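Researcher: Next entry in the queue.
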Amino acid sequence: MNPNLDQLQPYPFAKLAALKQGLTPADKPHIALSIGEPKHAPPHFVRDELIDNLDKLSVYPATKGIDQLREAIAIWLQQRFQLEHVCADTQILPVNGTREALFAFAQAAVSPGSNVLMPNPFYQIYEGAALLAGATPHFVNCSAATGFKPDFAAIPEQVWRDCELLYICTPGNPTGALLDADDLRALIELADRYDFTIASDECYSELYFDEGQPPIGLLQVCEQLGRKDFRRCVVFHSLSKRSNLPGLRSGFVAGDARILEKFLLYRTYHGCAMPLPSQYASIAAWQDEQHVRHNRALYKEKFAAVLEILDGCLEVQQPQASFYLWPRVGNRERSGEDFARELFRQQNVTVLPGAFLAREAGGINPGRDYVRMALVATLEECIEAAQRIKEFCQ
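Model: Structure for this entry, 394 residues:
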């Protein structure tokens, strides 16, 4: 067996199950705010497209995906991020959900012994990908002092020298913080100076609150810099959050054609082509924005209701984007784990301790005093959960 498997930590939800083990929750209906699984109804026309193409299950799909899907993605990227041109043939690669692609990318993009940098707290796939590629994860703390952005200024030069891959997540999971154009320009300069690849996880980019100000993306900043080849830059997008289609397992990677050429070679051996019915369903999803705007409106309504209830009882604010709240609940005597355990026991509401999403770095675990709340349940359930949390805090 690969000895690097022994370095993998239990997944956050395994830790959560252990935290709750042996507890008897209050006699109330359970409300889960722990898992970031969208619960809004998926678009009916995507389902119809999937069904209409089930006959294509008899065909082996190509790893590169069909031309029509890559072209639909290219058009979406150009419109959404104000790009002059994206080459559907060389700069886009469909994938079976970005979780799979984010993990696989490190296996193709880094060499054993190199550094892979990632935000802390983070999506645990980044860490596992680095470890199984034989690289060393380096955690970049995100705290209130930096607006929950990674503190890139604190990274020693030697760490940058040995870096081959930087994962960023914008909007951030779990904090909802955004990297702005200046942040992304600075990272591109660092990538040029130290010769590493930036992998930007932008899976929450379509969950924002101001229709006039969508979050900026890495390729958009490349375009502003005249960097039309997207050198050293790749982005990951998904239909899971944007279109409430987590079970479709559909996303894409886009950016530097030289990098994607090698990644396609890796994936050809990996054997991870997207089934043709899923590809045709994905085309329908990428070509429609009406359901995405409706999706944002539902989340906006939930955030407004929940934050009104929690005002004054928790240190929490609306994120810049995403469907997560990241309230500070800990103090010297109580951690986020303590809060989550007692909230479940007293109110039968499940939240995820922030420490489970982070690692100790620089002498601290930046998630220790926080919990993550995913507002994915119905509006009524989110309101009920907020009322129970308020009662618990009081």
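Model: The chain is about 40% helix and 15% strand.
Researcher: Noted, moving on.
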